[in-house]
């Protein structure tokens, strides 16, 4: 007896009570289905916290293929956060932070070297109102922050009850998170935001072409479709 | 602008759907300019349930900053309506004019041109200039229908759970109406804000007795929005008996006023536990102005039934580790409610919430969503107390109040045990295969 496995079918995804069919393919990964569902519902608030849940309460493993996860045609899946904390808030970035960032990246990098800055704010709020340019070595292929400067930086932050909210650095051409970017962020706590600006930040002060991502609880980095998922630019 | 600070969390939640370039001021103004007319004739307002529907709806829409006008007869209160005071429902409500949040007025001026009208039961409506929904319901079920849709019924029951359901449904329509008048972030968001012609919710407890509720000893962990909503509901149950404690070291902030159902503006700066104890004396809840987990072992010995309304995930784990016989956990996430119960031996709250994502300092919230979380929490307690335990297939409820007219607004599910449960509950440990040769 042969079993026919349907290769293309639709699952029903429910978000905020609204149900939509989402087309899936047996070989594609669940993470792709999840991204499609997020886009179909226009979710912009903390989409990286969302997962797909079956009606028996189990989470659909994002690392599996649709077939491995055992998804069936017409199966109802709930799109909801995988950690219910009453919601999350985005960082509110003061109006002068982005222009100041680009100014520093341009002046230091001179169109030929990578550079990095850190966005800071009070530990008791989600406001970003400061930009720190560290002492660092630089080349067209990378940068390295001086450890003495870092030690002093952490002390200053602690004394002022401030924290690093976002790391921003420039790349020569395309914006992406390299292997060393993945391994060595200044903060490794889940939810920390990293931004990579293309073309040594020689363009206009905008995050339109930037790579924006957050570190997940398991240490992986997730690229976000829009910077507005985690940032509100004033 | 008056009310901007009080509505900060609500405005933040509106940003899920409104255009990003709208200012807080514009969103606040939209909410505050909305005029709500609530009408009822004598026979729909004389019952405790009818009065509860009115009091709850007024509180929920006022806490969104909206303006309320009442066209109601002045009727003696059937039972107490905490936190309202006064001998009649009308005087009780007029006394809290602008007391929930600044600039949210409650008047008897009916000459205003309302944006929306809500009518209790089958109260006749004379003026059809504004969209109108009717609030109806039974003991454990409530619904709203646009005037002219379906048949209208008078409020005849006394038991008030259904009336609080209908009030929460009505408040949701008021909110969606306001947001539909703002520019949205995306057309995709319109589906979440669509008006419901009819919507309802039934706890399906029709055969459950409606008197003689004795909850015994109950501990509440947190005196925040969800616990306050649960106690608001319980305080309205006729003849209810319970004793217990409420733990919280927090004081009331301005940004709590948008959802803390037992709190007034005058309470800002006061300990939340004292506000709760003072407003619900009939529930005999002892205020403990300390964070649970920071006291003596004797103090932290839990009651047989525990209500957890804290958003902090590790705090939920900590309570669960103490092994209460019965635990209900209520939470909200943007426009959604999560409610779960955990009995001894069942998969625990750690299995349901295994990850402690980094939390924001400012959480978006709104009155009717927090109220739903408290209402469900309270009903689960009542259900347990009368020996109608929830089946394991309904251990977890994910509710989306924005579209209660849709069949998938409520998703019940079991809680699967997880091997990586941070609490290491018995259900999760049973998943680990023991190799007898390795022992």
Q: In brief, what are we looking at here?
A:
Chain A is of the alpha/beta class. Helices cover 18% and strands 32% of the residues of chain A. In chain B, the strands form two sheets. In chain B, strands 10-9-8-11-12-13-14-15 form an eight-stranded mixed sheet, sandwiched between helices. A seven-stranded mixed sheet of chain B has the order 3-2-1-4-5-6-7.
Word description of this protein:
The complex is a heterodimer of chains A (234) and B (439). With 234 residues, chain A is an alpha/beta fold. In chain A, 18% of the residues lie in helices and 32% in strands. Chain B contains 13 helices and 15 strands. Chain B is globular. In chain B, 27% of the residues lie in helices and 18% in strands. In chain B, the strands form 2 sheets. Chain B has an 8-stranded mixed β-sheet, with helices on both faces. Chain B has a 7-stranded mixed β-sheet with strand order 3-2-1-4-5-6-7. Chain B has helices at residues 8-14, 24-32, 42-45, 48-62, 89-94, 161-180, 190-193, 225-234, 272-279, 313-321, 349-352, 367-385, 426-429; strands spanning 35-39, 67-71, 106-107, 116-120, 132-137, 141-146, 198-202, 214-221, 241-247, 285-288, 305-308, 326-333, 336-343, 396-399, 410-413. The A-B interface holds A 14, 16-19, 40-42, 44-45, 49, 53, 55-58, 76, 78, 80-89, 124-126, 189-192, 217, 228, 232 and B 12-13, 15-16, 20, 185-186, 188-189, 191-192, 311-313, 331-336, 338, 352-353, 355-365, 395-396, 398, 400, 402-404, 406-409, 411, 413-416.
